[in-house]
Amino acid sequence: MYRALYRKWRPASFSDVSGQSHVTDTLMHEVQTGKLSHAYLFTGSRGTGKTTCAKILAKAVNCLHPVDGNPCNECEICRGIDDGSVLDVIEIDAASNNGVDNIRDLREEANFTPVKAKYRVYIIDEVHMLSIGAFNALLKILEEPPSYVLFILATTEVHKLPSTILSRCQRFDFRHIPPQSIAERVQYVAKQENIDLTDEGALMIARYADGALRDALSLLDRCSARGETVTADLVSACAGIAGKEHLFRMADCIAQNDAAAALQLIGELHASSCNMERLCTELTEHFRNLMVSKVVRDPAELILCSGEDLEHYKSQSTAFTLESILHILRVLGETVVNLKKGLDRKIETEMAILRLCTPSLSTDSDALLRRIADLEAKLAGGVLPVKSTPPQAQEQPAPPAPPAEPEPPAPPASKEPIPTDGQPEKFKLWPEVILQLKETCKPISGFLPGSSAYIQGDTVCIHTDNDVFRKFVAMPLYKNAICAAVEKVSGRAMQVAVADNKKEVQKKDPLENLIRKIDSLKESE
Fold first, then answer.
1. b/e map of 90-119 (b: 16 or more CB within 10 Å)?
2. pLDDT digits over 161-212, tens only?
3. Facing residues of 154 across strands?
4. Would you give the distance in Å from CA 407 to the centre of its chain?
């Protein structure tokens, strides 16, 4: 009868366990020296080797001919534990035996000496499922067990165990197995099973396994059933995830704000039975790689991929600002949560992608920071955003532009006399102040085209219909920058204030006015 790969290739000794050397080395030394604890607690995520190490430890302490702390797997005791004929090693599933009576039966059995083995070993899997009464029943024998009894507790949720249980066990934390270790183990198993597995396919399996070697072997088993060469594309198809080319295409659509192409791509993936939740998870991992490529100087150590894909990540990361990536990651994280309770996963995913391609649809602070960062990046690169023109207007030929009149010479840099009375007077050097701010504080200068200023006493009153500018002036950083520019141009230190604007501004979008000012700047140029 065919056996699943994760059962067939379950490690039989500590030396075969992948990625948990901090646990296996300690256990091997304890077996060699005979300094065994009466109770062990193995904790960690699924598929990391907790139950496997528990069974190896049960064999090692009872083996007739141990080898450097490992069981020999050849003596009568080792073979009997493997086939279940030695009844001195008892494995209990706490999920289905979680009552007080079950633990009381265990306590009564523990009083009997082993029949064949040296130790009577109790392996309690998913021990966090025990009831409070069962924990209390287990407490006394766990604290003072007979000399021939050994307890091994395994759990994925150690925080649910009472502190009284934790303090009586020697705890070992099983880590996520590194992707490279998973890929190496999967390639070894594939070679032994005569499965044609490519390096890219092994890396894709390791990525999907998320630190669980059992999940990796299960996926390899599923892929090999197709009778084909196991490539990265085949792994993606069997796991129901999007291939890397789809992820790069989706990221390009988001960078170019091309919502139509992004929705069409989602339709293609949905038609090919791509799981929408898994797609969002893969997109999250993709943008995480873009974030690492943008921040870390040498991202090869933090991103598991081929050299070609790494270069692709680096080049694509330049199309996004860090604020954009953080906003995208937050939206994708919220979407994964919504998919678990939404009625239509495709629609939920389409809504999320539409928000990512059109940041103006979001009004939260992350979306506004993203849009401001994108505008600053375009301004720094000399690219000014242009409003889209209706097709009818684009078809009409533009009238010839009148010859440009020579600009009047710039006013001399003489200091303007400052009135000492309280009557307002127009600040004629205000255009020079704006030019100065373009050099010292670009963000605030973008709000000032079209504004005017008046002097009243020792205060410069700025007249503008931009409400966002009022919020910026309230910040000490930008207010001090304006005061410094005024002092440099006029030769006198003055305060800065924004005149009250009685007009009702009905603009709902706080960045719409900024874009309008930028457009007017471009037209003037």
1. ebbebeebbebebbeebeeebeeebeebeb
2. 999 999 999 999 999 888 888 999 999 999 999 999 988 889 888 888 878 8
3. 42, 125
4. 53
Tokens found for residue 99: 């009552």
Per DSSP (E only), the strands in 13-103 are 39-44, 89-93
pLDDT digits (tens, 9 = 90+) for 253-268: 999 989 999 999 999 8
- CB atoms < 10 A from the CB of 272, how many? 11
Q: What is the dihedral of CA 183, 188, 193, 195, to 10 degrees?
A: 50
Tell the burial category of 206 from Cβ atoms under 10 Å away from its Cβ (0-12, 13-18, 19+). buried
Tokens encoding 418? 């400052």
Bridge partners for 121 per DSSP: 89, 150
Q: In what order do the strands lie in the sheet with 495-498?
A: 425-426, 452-456, 459-463, 495-498
User: Which of residues 459 and 467 earns the better pLDDT score?
Assistant: 459
Task: Give dist(CA 31, CA 53) in Å, integer.
Answer: 13
Q: Could you give the CA distance from residue 470 to residue 452 in angstroms, rounded to a whole number?
A: 14
How many whole angstroms separate alpha carbon 125 and alpha carbon 50? 9
Q: Is 336 helix (H, G, I), strand (E, B) or coil?
A: helix
